Amino acid sequence: MIPPIQPVRPRPRSPQASGVLPSGPSALKPELPPAPAGSVAPIAINAPSLAVDPLVEQAYQAFQRNDLAAARDGYQRALAREPTNRDALLGLAAIDVRSGQLGSAEARYLRLLEIDPRDSHAVASLISLRGQLDPVASESRLKTLIASLPESALLHFSLGNQYAQQSRWSEAQAAYFKAHSVDPENADYAFNLAVSLDQLHQGKLALEFYQRALALTDKRAASFDPARARLRVQELSK
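Above: the chain's sequence. Below: its structure in token form.
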């Protein structure tokens, strides 16, 4: 099962603009440490400005509260008003993934790529959905994208997830570390970095990043289970 994918944080929009405006894998399950989270995380954490589409902002906030019904309703209304609204399409795709409607999610990502073939978030999310079918091709595609967009935290995170699925923990750790370096406020990036360090028997560092991941969940939603993370913190603290 593909873990939850999060929508991007909506960015301010120009009142005169139209069309697309810029905005913004299966987890392994070892008994201990916890499995890494799979998440397309919000690309910004700044407070919304008055120019943000209120329907999209309300839907995003509902998603953060895990109120998927309200989030879906808000994104659908925004999409009805503007069929190419990127934030709404990404948000609905994230809800589809969380609800297990993977075919619908894939269709939305493909729609985003029709609008903008260079949309790295849509590409990375689509690769995450298809990664289990052809991990070699997915890894190659992600590396090609990273060569063009070396500062995309999402792409490094997705590559780390590909490595983690194959238990290539040293490579996964390096990819997660890069993602965390680019976006240090993302809880999922910190958590997956902790898991990879844990798998490499670097308990002291793993403990540090588990604790950081838990602290970051106060700021924005995460895909991992905080209860399992807290349990692992207790075990590593003994």
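DSSP finds eleven helices and no strands in the chain.
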